[in-house]
Specification:
The structure holds two protein chains of two kinds. Chain A is mainly β. Chain A contains no helices and twelve strands. The mean pLDDT of chain B is about 95. Chain B is globular and about 40 Å long. Classes of the chains: A mainly beta, B mainly beta.
Chain lengths: ~120, ~110
């Protein structure tokens, strides 16, 4: 079974600085998808970024980018120019490309604090 | 934001009572999902639907049932609520063209006393 591990329960960053959140996963599959979701205090789960495993190029969305290392099964999220509104829980998630449509597997999350 | 609403947003109930949570979408997406979120566990899939009247179990389906009689509505029922079902429940949807990518509703906080 696939697993997703976020080894940093909490992280802190100074406003305007850069922070990297770590995620590793375990799978025997070669084709899959990876995601980062943000959950602010409002509790809403917000999709931050999506990566297709068969694509070598790292996904980027404005200030958010990933470092996808397929061989190492690593999928870290880099937040540049951190803003106070980036403070939230961040969840890494894995989804197989085949099989059950519902099979989105989440890590336990990293709580990010942003200091002014 | 994806057009997903959940009702109620908060509910307190007694052990042994039935509870139904509703997820409503205005996106006409084919796939719908129910997750629960508990401290230390992240989100875990309860049930999902791949079309009207087509549903299947997820990782933590015991004690829950679902129904989908219309594309836009996906109901989650706790037939006899227990304290272990105190949690935050999220509905999610995804479309056929990009069914891997799920968008979430605002969540329902359920407390079972």
């Amino acid at each position: 079974a696939q697993t997703v591990t976020q080894s940093q329960p909490e992280m802190s960053v100074q406003e305007a600085e850069t922070v990297t959140l770590s995620c590793t996963y375990d799978t025997s599959e070669s084709d899959y998808y990876l995601f980062w979701y943000k959950q602010p205090p409002s509790r809403q789960m917000i999709l931050v970024i999506r990566q297709e495993a068969y694509k070598q190029q790292n996904a980027t969305e404005n200030r958010f980018s990933v470092n996808f290392q397929k061989a190492a099964k690593s999928f870290s999220l880099k937040i540049s120019d951190s803003q106070l509104g980036d403070a939230a829980m961040y969840f890494c998630a894995y989804r197989s490309s085949g099989g059950s449509q519902g099979n989105l597997i989440f890590g336990k999350g990293t709580k990010l604090s942003v200091k002014p | 934001d994806a057009g997903i609403t959940q009702s109620p947003r908060h509910k307190v109930t007694e052990t042994g009572t039935p509870v139904t949570l509703r997820c409503h979408q205005t996106e006409n997406h084919r796939y719908m999902y129910w997750y629960r979120q508990d401290p230390g566990h992240g989100l875990r899939l309860i049930h999902y639907s791949y079309g009207v009247k087509d549903t299947d179990k997820g990782e933590v389906s015991d004690g829950y049932s679902v129904s989908r009689s219309k594309t836009e509505d996906f109901l989650l029922t706790l037939e006899s609520a227990t304290s272990s079902q105190t949690s935050v429940y999220f509905c999610a949807i995804s479309e056929v063209r990009r069914e891997d990518t799920q968008y979430f509703g605002p969540g329902t906080r359920l407390t079972v006393l």
